[in-house]
Design goal:
The chain is built from 10 helices and 14 strands. By secondary structure, it is an alpha+beta fold. The strands form 3 sheets. Strands 6, 7, 8, 9, 10, 11 and 12 form a 7-stranded mixed β-sheet that branches. It has a 5-stranded antiparallel β-sheet with strand order 2-1-5-4-3, with helices on both faces. It has a two-stranded antiparallel ribbon with strand order 13-14. α5 packs antiparallel against α7 and α9 runs antiparallel to α10.
């Protein structure tokens, strides 16, 4: 049939031969006319077939152009998983830098399963089997490795071709960035959960510390009111602003005559205030609102003040405290004296708290860099129980890490070392720690400082107040 008029090739051939008006007077002439009609019919059929062939070629060329130019990677595989056709984006996706094959043409004829990681090949085979059996779209997320040990995540959407039941059409999507974002979200969620856990742990420890301190203050106030003397145990733990831990062995209680509870009460209240101040300072540092106020002061006075302040507490626990300095007495440095004193106070308090026997050393040295600049090296060394190596990295992170480092063997809110690290950074210095479990811990602080002339008025330490207790700083 002629595709345009609906007439048969025979009718068209008869019409054309009739127009030639060939003679048909006898059987021979009629046979010749019939042969010509048949010949023309065959010619018309051949022309129609050639036209259809050209149309099919044009459509195939258009399909190929569209298939190859599509921005989305496409694959055509058979029901055995062999790649029959791959467009340019698919070839580029599978042969990206570092992939297994360098020649894109080598993709054709290979099993699609060889492109995914070994752990996912069985998953891909089940995926193709279900598409082949059920004939409906399915999506799978698989990892495609490269020769360099890296790779990318790919989402594969497969559908069965209705015109050929042995073919499966696959669309590939690079979802590496999506997977990376998912991993980041999971990590952020885990970090948030961990931060919340540490916050709760810190609040619990802080509440415990404040409760112990307030209990000690109430007990000391009652002792002062009744005129009762303090025991040695009460004086020791009052000075440290801690009560004995559950299960902790203490020395037999002995009465100390004429022991006034008021100095211990004052010390306990001051320790509690320092705990609150440290907590507020840590919060201010995290919020970026803590300011540094540099003023010139005699550095040796700070070392002397630390010795005067912590010597009684170390002695009360039977510890020896040594403060050694190679810095000349008149060295006038310019930095934030309060924050540097806060760092040393926390380090010394930690050393006293976590050391049961032995000694504690505070060592200070100065290294001049220029006439106006230098570096101060500080070391606080103790003979305490030390810190396990597996948690040294996390101990600086924040409240909760430090307080959990010895399980139930220690006490304290865990804010000391994280606060020291942040204060040291604000002062432009560095702090690091070395610990040997069972033998002790050393904390090192390196701090750049400006050197001032003696003509400037320095801040000085008032080592004792009117009651004989360690005092503060004054202009």
């Amino acid at each position: 049939m002629d595709g345009t008029s609906g007439r048969s090739f025979r009718d068209l051939a008869e019409q054309e031969i009739a127009s030639l008006k060939l003679p048909q007077t006898n059987d021979l002439e009629k046979l010749v006319v019939e042969l010509k009609i048949h010949e023309r019919e065959l010619e018309l059929q051949q022309e129609a077939l050639e036209a259809i062939q050209r149309e099919l070629e044009d459509r195939n060329r258009q399909f190929t152009q569209l298939f190859q130019a599509a921005p989305i990677p496409y694959l055509l595989v058979d029901n055995e998983g062999l790649i029959i056709l791959a467009n340019d984006p698919a070839q580029q996706l599978l042969t990206r830098p570092g992939a297994q094959l360098r020649n894109q043409a080598d993709i054709l004829g290979t099993p699609i399963s060889q492109w995914v990681q070994r752990e996912d090949r069985a998953v891909l085979q089940r995926h193709l089997q279900m598409v082949d059996e059920q004939g409906r779209n399915r999506i799978e997320e698989l990892f495609i490795p490269s020769g360099t040990g890296t790779g990318f995540w790919c989402s594969i959407e497969s559908s069965k071709q209705p015109h050929n039941p042995n073919w499966i059409f696959m669309t590939l999507y690079d979802i590496t960035s999506k997977k990376s974002l998912e991993d980041d979200l999971i990590l952020a969620q885990n970090q948030a959960v961990q931060a919340n856990r540490l916050k709760n742990l810190f609040l619990a420890n802080l509440s415990h510390e404040l409760r112990n301190a307030l209990t000690s203050i109430i007990h000391l106030a009652e002792a002062a009111e009744s005129g009762a003397a303090l025991t040695a145990e009460e004086r020791i733990f009052g000075d440290l602003s801690h009560g004995p831990q559950a299960g902790q062995q203490t020395q037999p209680t002995q009465q100390i005559s004429n022991t006034d509870p008021l100095p211990t009460l004052r010390t306990t209240a001051q320790s509690t205030l320092r705990l609150i101040d440290d907590t507020l300072d840590f919060t201010a540092i995290e919020d970026g609102t803590l300011s540094i106020k540099n003023k010139p002061f005699m550095f040796q006075d700070l070392i002397d003040h630390m010795g005067m302040r912590f010597q009684p507490q170390a002695k009360a626990k039977g510890l020896e405290l040594y403060c050694r300095s190679t810095i000349r007495n008149n060295l006038l440095i310019d930095t934030d004296m309060d924050r540097l004193g806060q760092i040393l106070s926390n380090l010394l308090m930690n050393a006293i708290t976590y050391t049961e026997t032995g000694r504690i050393d505070l060592i200070a040295t100065y290294r001049p860099m220029t006439d106006f600049m230098g570096e101060i090296d500080l070391e606080v060394r103790d003979t305490g129980q030390g810190i396990p190596q597996e948690i040294l990295r996390d101990i600086w992170q924040g409240p909760g890490f430090e307080s959990n480092r010895y399980e139930k063997q220690t006490r304290g809110p865990g804010i000391g070392l994280p606060l020291c690290k942040r204060l040291t950074k604000l002062l432009g210095g560095q702090i690091y720690l070395n610990s040997n479990p069972g033998f002790g811990t050393s904390v090192y602080v390196n701090l750049p400082v400006h050197i001032r002339t003696q003509e400037e008025t320095p801040l000085t330490f008032r080592l004792h107040d009117d009651t004989g207790q360690p005092g503060g700083l004054e202009q």
